[in-house]
Amino acid sequence: MTLRPKVNKAVIPAAGLGTRFLPATKAMPKEMLPVVDKPAIQYVVQEAVDAGLHDVLMITGRNKRALEDHFDRVPFIEQTLLEKGDLEKLAAVRLPSELCDIHYLRQGDPKGLGHAVLRAKQHVGSEPFAVLLGDDLIDERDPLLETMIEIQQKTGGSVIALIEVDPAQISSYGAADISAIEGEDYVRVNKLVEKPPVEEAPSNLAVIGRYVLHPRVFDVLETTEPGRGGEIQLTDALQTLAASDGEGSGVYGVVFRGRRYDTGDKLSYLKAVVTLAAERDDLGPDLRVWLKNFSQDMTG
Q: How far apart are alpha carbons 235 and 64 in whole angstroms?
């Protein structure tokens, strides 16, 4: 296998306004919404770290200061917990600041996901890198990012994560036209369409918020015109790479069949909180009993 630059860095776009969760997100970033007792963004950073990525760049915007505060030390709280002898909670409070090196850069103009990724160019440089969207939580028992990194190293192109959705829902996603690759458990992406009408969708394979990208994507994004919604779409840049030749060309897909939670959707967010809480040793037993009784009362 050709020796290629390793993937060491992760980019987490976190500049969105979170309008679907207003008024809760009026003064608090949507990425800080709690999933049980940790904010959603911490799960995403932990996923990057678990995949071996210890250099994280967050692309932020106005009113996102709470993100930086969460991943910083809080000496007063730590000292209070230490004096109380609450070492378990102390470790939990310190963990976010010890996960990895986190850098912050403001997006400035909200010109779309493609523009947010392009803002990372100077930090990333000429290495392949991962992009993790904070709305998608991937269950830690179903590794995805590690697999995507391996495929990027093998192919030298860019890799996206796909899931099968109900065909009627495909217009809410980017949709992929794919071809199987003999002997491989990943696919070649021939075409990507951002939020197509149901009747024009090339498949029911939807792009979700995990990417491992060749740095050539930056050159493409610099010349990508605004697309759907008047924004610079990462999907459009990947479409260009899928149809190109040479170094860094080609886009490949991993069809993910593990557990994923969309915390950008209210119902899916609630399911994520309940599911993750029900599986915990400290909360699960009592919660599962309550859920069973609650369900019976609701249907009774």
A: 25
